[in-house]
Specification:
Layout (H helix, E strand, L loop, with lengths): L3 E4 L2 E3 L7 E3 L1 E4 L2 E3 L7 E3 L2 E3 L2 E3 L12 E8 L17 E5 L17 E3 L17 E3 L56
C-alpha cells in the first residue's frame, strides 16, 4: 500500500540526503538540483522521471524501481543498482559520474551512457545488448560474463574487456581503444 504518490511534480533544490524515503511513487516527476546522497530509498518507484544535476552518491535503492528514468549531469558515486527492482528497470545517463557503482546482473538492453565517468563500475553478468557508451571513461570497469552484443564502444576509453569471458558479437570498437581487448595478453603494441 502506497503512503503517497506524486504525479508530474517538480522538485527543485530539495535536500533528501541521509533521509529515509519509503513506499512512495513518483510518476513523470522532475528533480532538479536535489541531493539524495546517503539516503535510504526503499520500495519506492520512479516512473518516467528526470533527474537533472542531482547527487545520488552512496544512495541505497533497496527494492526500488527505476522505470524509464533519465539522469543528466548527476553525481552517482558508489550506487548499487543491482538491488533495484528488475521489473521494467530502464535508465539512461548523460554527463554523469557513476564511478564505483554496480549494475551486477541487471538487464539494460539499449541503455545510453553519454559522456559519463564510469571508473571501477561493475558490469558483471549484465545484459548490455545494443547499449551505447558514447565518450565514456571506463577505466577499471569490470566486464565479466557480460553481454555486449551489438554494443557501441567506439568513443569509449580506458576499458579492458576479455573477449573470452564476454559476449562481443557485432560490438563496435575503434582504434586505439580497441587494444583494451588484448590487455590480458600483456602484449606490446606499437
Amino acid at each position: 500500500m502506497l503512503n503517497s504518490s506524486y504525479q508530474e511534480k517538480t522538485f527543485n533544490s530539495k535536500d533528501f540526503s541521509e533521509k529515509k524515503i519509503s513506499v512512495k511513487e513518483f510518476d513523470k516527476c522532475t528533480f532538479t538540483n536535489c541531493d539524495f546522497s546517503s539516503s535510504i530509498i526503499t520500495q519506492t518507484d520512479f516512473i518516467d522521471c528526470l533527474f537533472d544535476n542531482c547527487n545520488f552518491s552512496m544512495v541505497n535503492l533497496n527494492h526500488s524501481g527505476l522505470k524509464n528514468c533519465d539522469f543528466i549531469n548527476s553525481k552517482m558515486i558508489g550506487v548499487d543498482f543491482s538491488i533495484c527492482n528488475d521489473f521494467l528497470f530502464s535508465v539512461n545517463f548523460k554527463n554523469c559520474q557513476l564511478d564505483y557503482s554496480t549494475f551486477f546482473q541487471k538487464k539494460m538492453k539499449k541503455t545510453k551512457f553519454i559522456e559519463c565517468s564510469m571508473k571501477q563500475v561493475d558490469f558483471s553478468e549484465v545484459e548490455l545488448t545494443e547499449t551505447i557508451f558514447n565518450s565514456c571513461d571506463l577505466m577499471g570497469a569490470i566486464f565479466e560474463n557480460t553481454n555486449l552484443i551489438k554494443a557501441d564502444l567506439r568513443t569509449a576509453i580506458h576499458y579492458s574487456i576479455d573477449p573470452e569471458n564476454n559476449k562481443l558479437k557485432k560490438a563496435k570498437f575503434s582504434y586505439p581503444s580497441v587494444t583494451g581487448l588484448l590487455e590480458k595478453y600483456e602484449i606490446i603494441i606499437d
